[in-house]
Design goal:
By secondary structure, the protein is of the alpha+beta class. It is 35% helix and 29% strand. A hairpin with a 3-residue loop joins strand 1 (5-10) and strand 2 (14-21). The structure holds adenosine monophosphate (AMP). Keywords: ATP-binding, Nucleotide-binding. Pfam families: HSP70.
């Protein structure tokens, strides 16, 4: 039996371990969780904590907990944990040791070899430190590969394909963007850029600031209360995750603390649009970095064939939207962006081990679904702007919702239309459903209607429109939202091609496949009929008689029988016209 080689993504915020078995890549779960927070700590009893438990104690006992150690790799530094000093390699080794144990527990045997991923920008010293961390953890690091390379391996290419990919990796604390070239399964990083201090944590901090400001307006300052701050920080991240799927998030924390003898409960709503404004500068910075990376590879946006999303923060919908606007196509996100790098590491490990690997298959929607709303098209106001809600390549099942506002005072109903397609003009997409939500509150314009789309693994799309203020709701179900369109597209194509062969939609032969003589006869009948109003009744009678004979011959396809009546009818017409 070959030695097992595991693939490890040793991340700043989270780490994962994966393995290839019988050609299939598996990210190994520990107690049901595939993601191990990159936190190390010492508990009350002096025991070592790794992952979730260490993360949980971080805000309360920061002096006993270490996070984001990756940032210090390769530096001649030490960190303090419960009064002891540790090198970055040692702390990283604790995480690696835990991942090794998770994999051993899963495989039921000892594991001694690993492929570990590192950021493309890592220097020799940083790579060397990672290698040492592996050794300390009892792992032979058989190879270190760049994170974007690992991600690109997962998405792969056919043997004869050459592609240029942009790997956009936005995690909790770091942002990296790389341009990679893939040819015949060989991945090469052409250029990389990024920001070591930009990520989902910054987004959380924006929400924390928003909450603190809200409390401050009530005369409450919680910044000196570590437990309350820990709860607010956690609530902020939770709200952020909700806003990736919903247009509003409710932030609620009961008994946050006591203020002048009264318990303080936090109740606050955050709209996605307000949140997107808070993080807009960060997203702009990532796009600027993407352009710098492109420049570094001497390429422009139009040279990129695919965009790969990596890192949990890429689930933020406006990131996808901005990339779509910038590059003109949907980025890939079908492989879990948190697990993609570890999966690539395991694939590389399997290749080194001579194992076969199948392609990574996931169920995704091949289409974008959305609705139409009053908006803009080419800079002009337009009533049918297409608003995508579920994007192409989303992993199934998927639930997404968006908020819309009525635009007239006292508007009591809204016509909801659902489209499949990607054109900014909804009318150029395929309408797949329409319904009215009626009996809305008699209120000024701006009444919020939330539209939710749920697409399940069977391609059934559930649509619901809900008036936020009253809870009034109307739902419809669209069966075969996916396959129906594949079938419809096929039917359209068939019709088009059949048409070229002169067949009608039912495959029956139409006029075009008739003989030239028959086609000429039909033309002649038309011409004769157009003269009826101007001819004598005698001539008309003759013409009608001849037409009847011609039609009889046409019906049985008797081209020879056409010849004489056609000739005679032609003579009459010639005579009448001259
Ligand atoms: P990573 O370092 O790649 O594991 O990414 C972790 C970051 O992704 C954290 O900041 C998470 O809060 C963030 N994240 C995870 N899931 C989501 C989501 N659904 N929407 C937005 N951010 C997310």
């Amino acid at each position: 039996m070959n030695d097992i080689i595991i693939g490890i993504d040793l991340g700043t915020t989270n780490s994962e371990v994966a393995i290839v078995e019988s050609g299939k890549v598996t990210v190994i779960a520990d107690a049901g969780k595939k993601i191990l927070p990159s936190f190390v700590g010492i508990d009350d009893n002096g025991e070592i904590l790794v992952g979730e438990t260490a993360c949980n104690q971080y805000l309360i006992y920061p002096e006993r907990t270490v996070k984001s150690i990756k940032r210090l790799m390769g530096q001649d530094a030490q960190v303090a944990m419960a009064g002891q000093a540790y090198t970055p390699q040692e702390i990283s080794a604790v995480i690696l040791k835990r991942l090794k144990a998770i994999a051993e527990n899963y495989a039921g045997r000892t594991i001694g070899k690993a492929v570990i991923t590192v950021p493309a920008y890592f220097s020799d010293a940083q790579r060397q430190a990672t290698h040492e961390a592996g050794q300390i953890a009892g792992l032979e690091v058989v190879r270190m590969i760049n994170e974007p390379t690992a991600a690109a391996l997962v998405y792969g290419t056919g043997p004869d394909e050459a592609k240029r990919m942009l790997v956009y990796d936005l995690g909790g604390g770091t942002f990296d963007v790389s341009v990679v070239g893939v040819q015949a399964g060989v991945v090469e990083v052409l250029s990389s850029h990024g920001d070591n201090h930009l990520g989902g944590d910054d987004f959380d901090q924006q929400i924390v600031d928003y909450i603190l400001e809200h409390l401050k307006q009530q005369g409450i300052d919680i910044t000196g209360h570590s437990k309350a701050m820990a709860r607010v920080t956690r609530a902020a991240e939770k709200a952020k995750l909700v806003l990736s799927d919903e247009p509003f998030a409710q932030i609620e924390e009961e008994y946050l603390l006591e203020h002048q003898g009264t318990p303080i409960h936090l109740t606050l709503e955050l709209a996605r649009s307000a949140y997107e404004d808070m993080i807009a500068d960060y997203i702009n910075a990532t796009l600027d970095a993407a352009h710098i990376a492109l420049k570094g590879a001497k390429l422009t946006a139009s040279d990129i064939d695919e965009i790969i999303l990596v890192g949990g923060s890429t689930r933020t919908p406006c990131i996808r939207e901005r990339l779509f606007d910038e590059f003109g196509f949907e980025p890939h996100g079908e492989v879990d962006p948190d697990l993609c790098v570890a999966m690539g590491a395991a694939m590389q490990a399997a290749m080194i081990n001579g194992q076969d690997i199948g392609t990574v298959l996931v169920d995704v929607t091949p289409y974008t679904y959305g609705t139409s709303a009053l908006g803009y098209l080419d800079g002009m106001p337009y009533p049918y702007q297409f608003i995508p809600i579920i994007h192409k390549n989303s992993v199934l099942p998927v639930h997404k919702s968006e908020a819309f506002m009525t635009h007239q005072d006292g508007q009591r109903q809204v016509d909801v239309r659902i489209y499949q397609g990607e054109d900014p003009d909804a009318l150029n997409n395929i309408e797949i459903g329409e319904f009215m939500i009626e009996g809305l509150l008699d209120v000024p314009a701006g009444n919020i209607i939330t539209l939710a789309l749920d697409l399940d693994l069977n391609g059934i799309l559930h649509v619901s429109a809900r008036e936020k203020a009253s809870g009034k709701e109307k739902t419809i179900t669209i069966n075969n939202a996916i396959s129906r369109f594949a079938a419809e597209e096929l039917a359209d194509a068939k019709q088009r091609i059949d048409g070229l062969f002169g067949e009608n939609a039912d495959g029956e032969e139409g006029f075009a496949s008739e003989s030239a003589a028959a086609a000429e006869a039909r033309q002649l009948i038309k011409k004769a009929e157009s003269l009826f109003e101007t001819v004598s009744s005698e001539d008309k009678e003759d013409m009608v008689g001849l037409i009847e004979t011609i039609v009889a011959a046409l019906e049985v396809g008797d081209d020879t029988g056409l010849r004489e009546p056609v000739e005679r009818l032609n003579d009459i017409i010639y005579y009448l016209e001259s």
